[in-house]
Amino acid sequence: METRKPQKRVVLFTSPTCKWCNAAKAHMKKHKVRFREIDITKDAKAAKDCERHGCRGVPVVMIGSQWICGFDQKKIDKLLGL
Prior knowledge:
35% helix; Glutaredoxin; 21% strand; 82 residues; alpha+beta
């Protein structure tokens, strides 16, 4: 029986009109990655957190304690072991 490592916590910071956010969500769903989505247009604190980590736009992906500004698929896949 194959045992899988527990998945790192994944948070996706998005906004409703962002096409790259939709691409990031589709990528996560395709690979059955569980994630929490936070709409920064409705959560000012989350938007500030993204800015504090040097991200000026969305999507922002947080995997464990790693922050990724933008939809950097290679980096996301590497951190998630995809």
